Structures are given as structure tokens and as C-alpha cells.
Amino acid sequence: MSQIDNLPPLRDVIATHQLSAKKSLGQNFLLDLNLTAKIARQAGKLEEADVLEIGPGPGGLTRGLLSEGARRVLAIEKDERCLPALQQIADAYDGRLQVINADALEFDPLEYLTPPIKIAANLPYNVGTELLVRWLTPKEWPPFWESLTLMFQKEVAERIVAKPGSKAYGRLAILAQWRSDARIVIDLPPQAFTPPPKVSSAVVHLTALPEPRYPADAAVLSRVVAAAFNQRRKMLRASLKGVAPNIEDHLAAAGIKPTDRAEQIGLEEFCALARSVASQN
Ligand code: SAM
């Protein structure tokens, strides 16, 4: 194993600072610094970017991002027990790391960051999904970030990149793929973490598109897709009844058969449907 920096191994950091993993904070740490450097490389060219890292914990991914050349890292960590360990990293990396002790769901990091901005995180899964949805639904597009490199439970990662016709295809796939390119870049078994979680994980990399893949109003698209997938086994003429009185006309305008089910409909058709519905409002 090659060494990525001159700081102590993470196992020692955890022992020194008594960072026993707390379940309530979803703490499953990555201790292999070669692996965290590999994850950091998936974020792309870091030299000219500010990286927002959520949930650095003892700092494995933080060290990966810094050793891979990130211009700056802003790390938001809720658990104050991690701060002394993170301070050691900040001291070793000459002002390139700023740590803020806050709940990422409550904290707005924008004024601390200079574009281009990349986001990287190994987060508890519930927090990760909530932040992903927020990052994908800003008031204006393009968003403040250029790319997201995020660890998820494998099953959630599959929902993000899913294509029509699969069980995993649904609201999250459409939300993610409408305005970004989303790929699974690394698969990880439970044993990659300490302590190991119950399920496998995967790193997803999303790159923001300059504009949506197909035109549509975000709120209307979201309403149509939510209605379609809330009753995913029903035919669309039934599941979308509440969306517009003459839904069959809109389905026809979008080239969708009224007897199709949500799972069969691609992003382009959903956007065409949202445009037709919006044109009547
Ligand atoms: N990034 C580290 C790693 O890869 O080893 C730690 C990963 S651990 C899965 C999740 C981290 O997120 C923990 O350090 C936890 O304290 C932190 N965390 C949990 N909820 C948070 C929140 N709402 N805001 C900021 N950090 C949070």
C-alpha cells in the first residue's frame, strides 16, 4: 500500500481521538487511504476546484481529496468529536482545508465557496438522498456545483442511474438524469467500511448538464412523474387522471400509449408530456 501523506494511519487517528463509530450519525468509516484517493480521483480535475465535502468524519476522503490536489476543501461535519483529527489535516495541508462543525441539512455553504465547485461525500444514506434531491432541484439551472461524487447504498445508486424497463427506474432516475449525467463509478462491499454496514455500497458520479436534456417546467415534470410512479403498476391513463382532465390528449401529444405504465416511459417522453400539460395551464 503506498502512502498518500505523512499523517498517521486512520486506525491510529480513530484510536487517538476515541472516535468509536456512532450508529445515530451513520458512521461507517473508510480507512484505506488508497481507496479514498481513488474515490477522490472520480471527482475529476481537482486542482482548479473548491470541493465541498459533507461528513468528513476522521478525514479519510478529505485526505484523498487533498492529496489528489484539490485547490480547497470545505468540510462540514456534525460530530464535534472529529474536529481535532480534522484540524491535524488542516495543519498539514497549509490552509487548503476549512472545517465547519454543522449539520449539513441546516447549513448553507455557498458564501464559503468559489466556483468551480465540486461536491464529494460519504454520508449516512438518509442524509445523502435528501441532499442529492436538494442539489438536483435548485431554483435555477445550472446549479452552483459542477459535479457530485457521492457514496450510496448500492440499491439507491442503481435507482439513480436506472433506465426505463427496470424495477429501479422511477422518480430518482428521472430527477437525476434530466439535468445531469449519472454513472456508477465504484462498487464497494460492506467490508470496505469500519464497521461494515449491512449492505453493499456504490459511488455515483453526476455531472451537471449546462441545460436540461429536454425542455420542461421542473414543477410540472415533477408532478407528472410523481403521479405516474405513485401508482406504477397502473396504466398511465388511470394513474395520471388527477394531473389534467384531458390526460389522454396529452398522452397522445407526447406519443405515449394510454395503456402504457410509468416504468416503460423514457425521459424524453415524460418531458414531452410535461410540456403538453403545461401548455394548457
Ligand atoms: N467521510 C468519512 C469516511 O468516508 O470515512 C465518514 C463517513 S460516515 C459514513 C458519515 C459521516 O457523516 C460521519 O462522520 C457523520 O458524523 C457525518 N454526518 C452525519 N450526519 C451529518 C449531517 N447531517 N451533517 C454533517 N455531517 C453528518
UniProtKB/TrEMBL annotation:
<keyword id="KW-0698">rRNA processing</keyword>
<feature type="binding site">
    <location>
        <position position="30"/>
    </location>
    <ligand>
        <name>S-adenosyl-L-methionine</name>
    </ligand>
</feature>
<comment type="function">
    <text>Specifically dimethylates two adjacent adenosines (A1518 and A1519) in the loop of a conserved hairpin near the 3'-end of 16S rRNA in the 30S particle. May play a critical role in biogenesis of 30S subunits.</text>
</comment>
<keyword id="KW-0808">Transferase</keyword>
<comment type="similarity">
    <text>Belongs to the class I-like SAM-binding methyltransferase superfamily. rRNA adenine N(6)-methyltransferase family. RsmA subfamily.</text>
</comment>
<dbReference type="InterPro" id="IPR029063">
    <property type="entry name" value="SAM-dependent_MTases_sf"/>
</dbReference>
<keyword id="KW-0963">Cytoplasm</keyword>
<dbReference type="InterPro" id="IPR020596">
    <property type="entry name" value="rRNA_Ade_Mease_Trfase_CS"/>
</dbReference>
<dbReference type="GO" id="GO:0052908">
    <property type="term" value="F:16S rRNA (adenine(1518)-N(6)/adenine(1519)-N(6))-dimethyltransferase activity"/>
</dbReference>
<keyword id="KW-0694">RNA-binding</keyword>
<protein>
    <recommendedName>
        <fullName>Ribosomal RNA small subunit methyltransferase A</fullName>
        <ecNumber>2.1.1.182</ecNumber>
    </recommendedName>
</protein>
<dbReference type="InterPro" id="IPR020598">
    <property type="entry name" value="rRNA_Ade_methylase_Trfase_N"/>
</dbReference>
<keyword id="KW-0949">S-adenosyl-L-methionine</keyword>
<feature type="domain" description="Ribosomal RNA adenine methylase transferase N-terminal">
    <location>
        <begin position="35"/>
        <end position="210"/>
    </location>
</feature>
<feature type="binding site">
    <location>
        <position position="77"/>
    </location>
    <ligand>
        <name>S-adenosyl-L-methionine</name>
    </ligand>
</feature>
<dbReference type="InterPro" id="IPR001737">
    <property type="entry name" value="KsgA/Erm"/>
</dbReference>
<dbReference type="Pfam" id="PF00398">
    <property type="entry name" value="RrnaAD"/>
</dbReference>
<feature type="binding site">
    <location>
        <position position="55"/>
    </location>
    <ligand>
        <name>S-adenosyl-L-methionine</name>
    </ligand>
</feature>
<dbReference type="InterPro" id="IPR011530">
    <property type="entry name" value="rRNA_adenine_dimethylase"/>
</dbReference>
<keyword id="KW-0489">Methyltransferase</keyword>
<dbReference type="InterPro" id="IPR023165">
    <property type="entry name" value="rRNA_Ade_diMease-like_C"/>
</dbReference>
<feature type="binding site">
    <location>
        <position position="28"/>
    </location>
    <ligand>
        <name>S-adenosyl-L-methionine</name>
    </ligand>
</feature>
<feature type="binding site">
    <location>
        <position position="103"/>
    </location>
    <ligand>
        <name>S-adenosyl-L-methionine</name>
    </ligand>
</feature>
<feature type="binding site">
    <location>
        <position position="122"/>
    </location>
    <ligand>
        <name>S-adenosyl-L-methionine</name>
    </ligand>
</feature>
